[in-house]
Give the backbone structure.
Amino acid sequence: MTQEVTVLGLESSCDDTAAAVVRRGADGRGTILSNVVLGQDELHAGFGGVVPELAARAHAEKIDLAVERALAAAGLHLGSCDAVAVTAGPGLIGGVLAGVMCAKGLSAATGLPLLGVNHLAGHALTPRLTDGLAFPYLMLLVSGGHCQFLRVEGPDDFARLGGTIDDAPGEAFDKVARLLALPQPGGPSVEACAAGGRATVPLPRPLLDRAGSDLSFSGLKTAVLRARDAAVAAHGGLPREARADLCASFQTAVAEVLAEKSRRALALSDVTAFAVAGGVAANRTLRAALEDVAGAAGVPFVAPPLALCTDNAAMIAWAGTERFDSGAFDDLSLAARPRWPLDRAAAPMLGSGKRGAKA
Ligand code: KG4
Ligand code: ZN
């Protein structure tokens, strides 16, 4: 039996200003009492990506409102919470700072303990909130900013088994959408367009020839650019069928590479389940491929509901409940970190994308 714990969580590391209240019962199961996300899609729509300065300002303006709404929706006052958890990195530094400053203010004013949470730990621990998964399990994080395989061994214990050496898959979907004049975010529009096409365009399967579970997506995007130019040269424009075939071919390539690398990570990791998180996990072709891989390995496949796969504060509050028992609280010296690798033993990742540093 553990103690019942109620935590207010704050998230502002990319383009969602979010606050949530999560309670972990004495039986160890989590309940989301509220989950407020104030998105910034309209703010960045004209720029083809997240503009860090605009994001930071919007977070600073809206984070109080998100907290107010989360507490009201949970029917609680701050005084009924046991701690305040906040994303302290990795992410766009201005946004992370806005959340950390707000959480410090709340903690200083109320005396509630402060917990600085790693955003990636929030994603990685979500299957314990939604499905009560036991450690250890394999997590594939696939979003616009992240792509890595983690063996999740404890609330603060992660082994990184591989990850992208350049773009994240969501970034690749977004760039391919731009190349093909499809709307942003690219993932859903490429998936919709692919539904009318056939995967007949030959595209590379990057890094499949390299052992292990590292991935690369930037060459794939360049290959789509070349194939598009060839189609335009052949037809004097890009016919609808050619565009659909390109989308289907790209999506198949991403799904095949992620499935094969997942198969390898699973073979190495001796885990009880395979879980995914991140916006790209919404892709049906990818989900089906990953589910097959889990089935072949004889472990359950867990995909949290989409609203908890994408950025949110419930995952930060939950990670806070997991840390609470250790008594390892932060104080007002808590720093906002643009980079914060989960696995301290792993080699640092290369590069940094539009959505911030790769962790
Ligand atoms: O996790 P998320 O909401 O935000 C972060 O990147 O942190 O993921 C957003 C990414 C975008 O790049 C978007 O294009 C991609 O997830 N995405 C998809 C799909 N839905 C969203 N990619 C492929 N297929 C989808 N159906
Ligand atoms: Zn995220």
Observations:
- The mean pLDDT is 93.
